[in-house]
DNA sequence: TTTGTTGCAAAGGGTTTGCAGGAGA
DNA sequence: TCTCCTGCAAACCCTTTGCAACAAA
């Protein structure tokens, strides 16, 4: 896989963001060397295949991308207000899954879990007028 | 909400299927009184809002719809081979969530969990050549 | 009769593709 | 040099919308 300014740009944008971004947001943030939208799509797809990025579906049904820090099994916690996400390492689901297998007859091979809520920050600063949706700009540390 | 043959048709198709269906699949199965695709979209949206149906995203990233049997909190088990789903009542996640809240500082307000695997049936009849993906025809009982 | 619903066709919007030119290695 | 990658524009496809005709209640 070749190294190109476009690819570096995409990965940089993802790295610099603390929340998942839509394809268009990524594209917009590639200030210096903006590439074509198709290039962003094509590379994002590869990054996901390679395990360098991950796509997650927001509450608003929009697909967003995050840099994938940990290769191992994990899940995402998404703040409903600012859109920031946190990775959750352990999922503590294993026991429940074994139980379910016995109950349902299914052999469970994979699961997908997304958690929604309020991050510590937004929880603290619950000032009115601060409501935001995932996909909108977050706090001052946004970008 | 008025009762129309189109609405009855959609609900009937959903009820007769043991696996989630795409909008187009639902539309195709409304044999007698086939409606326009927009009508299917419009009603499906309402049914979901009303809690009569539920949309679930497959491993293939395609949205499908199921009749919603239980109004209470539940999750879906999807068979990767035949596409059939089962509803799981308890999710046994509650304890883990409390732990996570303490750990992450998040106040978890909602979660979305989908389980993938092999249903009892497909597990038993693991004959080669029987591979199917969600969205393709299932077993003989498919319709 | 009133008002919600349908069907059609057209618009919309995000994503993908084809292809020729360009640039990593 | 040889591929792989990019950019552009066009094609796609699923979904939504506008509007007039229609049918529940």
TrEMBL record, chains A, B:
Cofactor note: Binds 1 zinc ion per subunit.
Similarity section: Belongs to the Fur family.
Biological processes per GO annotation: negative regulation of DNA-templated transcription; regulation of secondary metabolite biosynthetic process
PANTHER family reported for this sequence: FERRIC UPTAKE REGULATION PROTEIN, ZINC UPTAKE REGULATION PROTEIN
Binding site for Zn(2+): 79, 82, 119, 122
Taxon lineage: Bacteria, Pseudomonadati, Acidobacteriota, Holophagae, Holophagales
Cofactor: Zn(2+); Mn(2+); Fe(2+)
Species per Swiss-Prot/TrEMBL record: Candidatus Geothrix skivensis
Gene3D superfamilies assigned to the protein according to its UniProt record, in alphabetical order: 3.30.1490.190, Winged helix-like DNA-binding domain superfamily/Winged helix DNA-binding domain
Keywords noted in UniProt: DNA-binding, Iron, Metal-binding, Repressor, Transcription, Transcription regulation, Zinc
SUPFAM superfamilies: Winged helix' DNA-binding domain (SSF46785)
Stretches of the chain forming a coiled coil according to its record: none
Protein name (Swiss-Prot/TrEMBL): Transcriptional repressor
InterPro entries per record: FUR (IPR002481), Fur_C (IPR043135), WH-like_DNA-bd_sf (IPR036388), WH_DNA-bd_sf (IPR036390)
Xref: Pfam families: FUR
């Amino acid at each position: 896989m070749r190294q190109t300014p476009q690819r570096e740009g995409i990965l940089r944008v993802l790295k610099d963001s603390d929340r998942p971004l839509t394809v268009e947001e990524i594209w917009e943030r590639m200030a210096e060397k903006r590439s074509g939208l198709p290039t962003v799509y094509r590379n994002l797809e590869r990054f996901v295949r390679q395990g360098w990025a991950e796509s997650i579906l927001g509450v608003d049904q929009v697909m967003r991308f995050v840099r994938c820090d940990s290769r191992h099994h994990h899940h995402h916690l998404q703040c409903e207000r600012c859109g920031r996400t946190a990775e959750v390492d352990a999922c503590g689901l294993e026991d429940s899954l074994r139980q379910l297998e016995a109950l349902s007859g299914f052999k469970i091979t994979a699961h997908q879990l997304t958690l929604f809520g309020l991050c510590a920050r937004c929880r603290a600063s619950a000032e009115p007028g601060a409501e935001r949706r995932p996909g909108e700009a977050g706090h001052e540390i946004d970008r």
